[in-house]
TrEMBL record:
<dbReference type="InterPro" id="IPR045010">
    <property type="entry name" value="MDR_fam"/>
</dbReference>
<feature type="domain" description="Enoyl reductase (ER)">
    <location>
        <begin position="21"/>
        <end position="306"/>
    </location>
</feature>
<dbReference type="InterPro" id="IPR013149">
    <property type="entry name" value="ADH-like_C"/>
</dbReference>
<dbReference type="GO" id="GO:0016628">
    <property type="term" value="F:oxidoreductase activity, acting on the CH-CH group of donors, NAD or NADP as acceptor"/>
</dbReference>
<dbReference type="InterPro" id="IPR041694">
    <property type="entry name" value="ADH_N_2"/>
</dbReference>
<protein>
    <submittedName>
        <fullName>Zinc-binding dehydrogenase</fullName>
    </submittedName>
</protein>
<dbReference type="Pfam" id="PF16884">
    <property type="entry name" value="ADH_N_2"/>
</dbReference>
<dbReference type="InterPro" id="IPR036291">
    <property type="entry name" value="NAD(P)-bd_dom_sf"/>
</dbReference>
<dbReference type="Pfam" id="PF00107">
    <property type="entry name" value="ADH_zinc_N"/>
</dbReference>
<keyword id="KW-0560">Oxidoreductase</keyword>
<dbReference type="InterPro" id="IPR011032">
    <property type="entry name" value="GroES-like_sf"/>
</dbReference>
<dbReference type="InterPro" id="IPR020843">
    <property type="entry name" value="ER"/>
</dbReference>
Length: 339
């Protein structure tokens, strides 16, 4: 029979600061009967994404999440029932499924994956990780936004996260001369240098002078700063960039929970060092995702590109696991295993 109801997290109230137990509400609702062109999907895993935090509090480029509405995220699952010509029972699919255990969706909103892709080093959850939005953000942030050239030095904040760790490895594979990460613990830095191929990593929690530590780790300066954090870390990195340096703005982890944004306070080097700073939404490159994914799968299977996942059992644990993203206790792509 399959799923007849769905357990789902909805927005209960708009958070001020890091979301807590009052922010979300767990509901159970019946699933509607299928119509032509629809499928019922049992969700196996969904992602916890810091980038959707602003929409919980205010209007954004994707709008504000309405009170009482499903929390958005990427998910993977299995088709349990189908009235679609394109998808059949048992197909493995991904999509913007949200924080829920099952759903009825139109087939055009589901991406079907060939199960033969997921073998060896490539797990099914890679579809919403290194081969999904995080991995594509790394790829296009370096290639198109950062315009990485061979031999350049790349500095990456939040380097142990799914975007940062992938960006560092891709930078090396795309010809960077030196790759430097910034992370929040010795364990994270050790993994980045020993396993992920970074040349150096600095623990910002132990740096008395962050700018000086960045400059030393970069052997004098960086050509590209891949920014996942914003705030004071961005201000320090601006001073470390070489003439003609580029900043690719992928995320602003330090800004999402501030009542008042820190903003960019260090602007003179944009003139004196001829710097360029550009933000981006990776969906602008969606037509090129397939080409990037093919190359990344090849590198994963060859052992040249690795990824780390942090899978937490139980849909009921989603709010606490999500809050942890903003407290520095995550390590890799954080996912909820629903069933």
């Amino acid at each position: 029979m399959g799923s007849t109801t769905s357990r789902r997290w909805v927005l209960a109230e708009r958070p001020a600061g890091i979301p807590d137990g009052n922010t979300f509400k767990l509901e159970e609702a019946p699933l509607p009967a299928l119509e032509d062109g629809q499928v019922r999907v049992r969700v196996t895993h969904f992602s916890l994404d810091p980038g959707m935090r602003p929409a919980l509090s205010r209007d954004t480029y994707v709008g504000a999440t309405p009170i009482g509405s499903l929390i958005t995220s990427a998910g993977v699952g299995v088709v349990e029932e189908s009235r679609s010509d394109r998808l059949k029972e048992g197909d493995f699919v991904s999509g913007g499924f949200g924080w829920q255990s099952a759903l009825v969706a139109r087939d055009k909103h589901c991406v079907k994956h060939d199960p033969r892709l997921f073998n060896g080093n490539v797990t099914p959850t890679a579809a919403i990780g290194i081969l999904g939005i995080p991995g594509m953000t790394s790829w296009f942030g370096l290639k198109d936004i950062g315009q990485l050239a061979e031999g350049e030095t790349v500095l990456i904040s939040s380097a142990s996260g799914p975007v940062g760790a992938t960006a560092g490895q891709l930078a090396r594979l795309m010809g960077a001369g030196r790759v430097v990460g910034i992370a929040g613990s010795k364990a994270k830095c050790d993994w980045l240098t020993a396993e992920a191929g970074f040349d150096a990593c600095l623990n910002y929690r132990e740096a008395d002078d962050l700018e000086a530590a960045m400059r030393e780790a970069c052997d004098g300066g960086a050509d590209i700063y891949f920014d996942n954090v914003g705030g004071e870390m961005l201000d320090a990195a601006i001073n470390v960039l070489k003439p003609g340096g580029r900043i690719a703005v992928s995320g602003q982890l330090s800004e999402y929970n501030r009542a008042e944004p820190h903003g960019i306070r260090n602007t003179l080097p944009f003139i004196t060092q001829r710097l360029t700073m550009r933000g981006f939404v990776v969906l602008d490159f969606v037509r090129e995702f397939g080409t990037a994914a093919i190359q990344m799968v090849e590198w994963i299977n060859d052992g040249k590109l690795i990824y780390r996942e942090e899978i937490i059992d139980g849909i009921e644990n989603a709010p606490d696991a999500y809050a942890g993203l903003f407290k520095g206790d995550s390590f890799g792509r954080r996912l909820i295993k629903v069933s």
